[in-house]
């Protein structure tokens, strides 16, 4: 069993070490200030991965979440993260700051 | 206050259920309370560390650090759950026998305890850092009444503890003869769900992109963010829009654990070739 676990963990670590390099630079930037995103509507192409940079200018951390597009990332206060956004079909997809999800909302518009 | 309660409770559901299941599964193994407590404590400490280094982690691996960390933690938990289930398959009968004769302890159970303590720690760690950051945010933002939000958070944490207890109570009511069969299935599904979730993080990190078509969309029927959705997400790995690869990972994990456990139960030696 130990051997199997070891082999598995080596395999997993190997997966991560070979993580692809992101040659493309973030194309879209979104800023979270207070409880509003700007822009609050972001156009994305259907079926293509877009790198979106989320900047959080608040002192408090935020959690960017979009269930339909499977984004769930924590952004520290005054920090930024990038998310790979891929809309598989056309539509409006909600994203929120989960810590203030009733007010801090935005949409990815895939067309 | 209610918003804080819901946020904290929602994040803690997974850890709450896992602790309850582990407590039930390890009944009769000496020292299990210490091991579970150690797992929880390590998870909480780890959460604080992860919360402090959120920025660094997020920036690691070209911005995919969070996803890769989550995937690693999940796969580690899957490995531990698999190991435990196979161990249980070998020793379940003696454990059940000894559960009936009160006071007898089970020799050799401690190795499996270590595995389960890791699982508990992983469950607490995964959602714990989000709770730590949420609480920290309340303290630094200062624009809402912090006292009310903190009350809500504490209530949310308490509800998580209650959930652990209820899960435990519910499971230990199962007669000893059947309890390990039931928990064996539960742990298998728990592991399968975690494997699918781990694959989801690899997909978010853009590490894997094959079989990424959506297998089904049941978001209109049961939202994954609802309380029931969260509970089912943890217990049986419910996902509203899984990819085909996630479904494949789920099935593969469930089949492998079931197969290896059967193998172990029938007394054959495990193939060490893997």
Written overview of the protein:
The complex is a heterodimer of chains A (111) and B (274). Chain A has 111 residues and is mainly beta. Chain A has a single domain, classed as Cupredoxins -  blue copper proteins (Immunoglobulin-like), CATH 2.60.40.420. Helix content of chain A is 14%, strand content 46%. Chain A has one helix and nine strands, in the order αβββββββββ. In chain A, the strands form two sheets. In chain A, strands 3-9-8-5-6 form a five-stranded mixed sheet, with no helix packed on it. Chain A has a four-stranded mixed sheet with strand order 2-1-4-7, with no helix packed on it. In chain A, β8 and β9 (105-110) form a beta hairpin. Chain A is globular and about 35 Å long. Mean pLDDT of chain A is 83; it is low at 18-23. Chain B is mostly helical. Chain B has one domain (2-265). In chain B, α1 (2-25) runs parallel beside α6 (146-172), α1 (2-25) runs parallel beside α8 (227-236) and α2 (32-52) runs parallel beside α5 (110-141). The relative contact order of chain B is 0.18. Residues 268-274 of chain B have low confidence and may be disordered. Chains A and B meet through α1, β6 and β7 of A and α3, α4, α5 and α7 of B.
Write a brief structural summary.
By secondary structure, chain A is mainly β.
What form of chain B results from the Cα inertia axes? Answer: globular
Question: What is the beta-strand fraction of chain B?
Answer: under 5%
Provide the low-confidence segments of chain A as ranges: 18-23
Instruction: Please report the total strand number of chain A as a whole number.
Output: 9
Instruction: Give the CATH architecture of chain A.
Output: Sandwich
The helical percent of chain A reads 10-25%
């Amino acid at each position: 069993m130990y051997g199997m676990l070891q082999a598995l963990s080596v395999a997993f670590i190997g997966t991560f070490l070979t993580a692809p390099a992101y040659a493309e630079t973030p194309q879209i930037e979104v800023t979270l200030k207070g409880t509003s995103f700007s822009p609050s509507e972001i156009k994305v192409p259907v079926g293509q991965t877009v790198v979106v940079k989320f900047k959080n200018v608040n002192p408090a951390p935020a959690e960017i979440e979009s269930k339909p597009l499977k984004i769930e990332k924590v952004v520290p206060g005054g920090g930024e993260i990038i998310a790979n956004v891929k809309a598989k079909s056309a539509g409006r997809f909600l994203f929120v700051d989960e810590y203030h999800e009733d007010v801090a909302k935005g949409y990815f518009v895939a067309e | 206050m209610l918003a804080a309660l819901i946020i904290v409770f929602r994040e803690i559901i997974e850890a709450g259920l896992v602790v309850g299941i582990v407590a039930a599964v390890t009944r009769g193994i000496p020292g299990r309370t210490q091991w579970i407590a150690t797992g929880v404590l390590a998870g909480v400490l780890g959460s604080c560390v992860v919360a402090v280094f959120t920025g660094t982690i997020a920036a690691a691996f070209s911005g995919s650090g969070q996803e890769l960390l989550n995937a690693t933690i999940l796969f580690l938990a899957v490995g531990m759950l698999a190991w435990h289930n196979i161990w249980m398959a070998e020793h379940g009968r003696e454990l059940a026998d000894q559960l009936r004769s009160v006071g007898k302890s089970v020799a050799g159970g401690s190795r499996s305890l270590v595995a389960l303590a890791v699982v508990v720690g992983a469950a607490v760690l995964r959602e714990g850092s989000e709770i730590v950051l949420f609480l920290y945010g309340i303290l630094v933002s200062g624009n809402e009444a912090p006292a009310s939000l903190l009350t809500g958070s504490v209530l949310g944490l308490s509800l998580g503890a209650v959930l652990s207890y209820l899960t435990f109570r519910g499971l230990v009511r199962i007669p000893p003869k059947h309890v390990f069969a039931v928990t064996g299935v539960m742990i298998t599904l728990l592991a399968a769900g975690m494997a699918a979730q781990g694959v989801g993080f690899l997909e978010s990190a853009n590490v894997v992109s094959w079989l990424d078509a959506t297998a089904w969309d049941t978001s209109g029927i049961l939202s994954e963010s609802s309380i029931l959705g969260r509970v089912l997400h943890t217990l049986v790995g419910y996902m509203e829009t899984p990819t085909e690869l996630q479904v494949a990972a789920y099935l593969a994990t469930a089949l492998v654990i079931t197969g290896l456990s059967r193998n172990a139960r029938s007394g054959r030696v495990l193939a060490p070739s893997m």
